[in-house]
Amino acid sequence: MEAGEDFGPWLARQLKLADMTQTELALAVDVTRAAVSAWITGRATPRSETIERIARALNTDLATVHTRTTDTRAGLPVGWYHRPGHADRGRELGNAAAFAFDADVSVLARETCQNSLDERITANGQPVRVRYTLHELTGEELARFREAIQWDDLYPHYEVVREQNQKVGRVVDAGLRDMYERDRLVLLRVDDYNAAGLTGDDYDDGRFAAVVRRQLDSHKSVGAAGGSYGLGKATLWATSRLGLVLINSTLSEPHEGRTERRLVGRLDLPWRQVNGESCAGPAWWGRPDPDSPGAKVARSWWADEETVASLHLTRESGEPGTSFLIVGAHDVASLTDDSAAPDSDEGEDDDSIQRMHHRLVRALGENFWAAMTGGGDRLPLLEASVRTLRNGVVVVPEERVDPMVAQPSRTRALKAFLDGTTVERLTEAGQVAAVTVPLNLPARAGGRSSLGEHRAVLLVTDAEDADIRLNRVVSMRGNRMTVRDTVVPGLSPTNPFQAVLLAGTAAGPQAPFAAEAEEFLRAAEPPEHNKWGQTEELTLTYSPSAYRRINGLTRETNAAIKALVVRPKKGTKQGGGKLAPKLTIGSGKKKRRLSGVSMPVLEELDARVLEGGAWQVIGEIRIPPGGHEWRLAPLAKFDVRSGPRPTIEWAEIVGVDNCQVVDGILHFSDGARSATFRGVTDPATHAVRTSLSGLVVELRTGEGKSSS
Question: Which run of H or of E encompasses 434?
Answer without folding.
Answer: strand 432-442
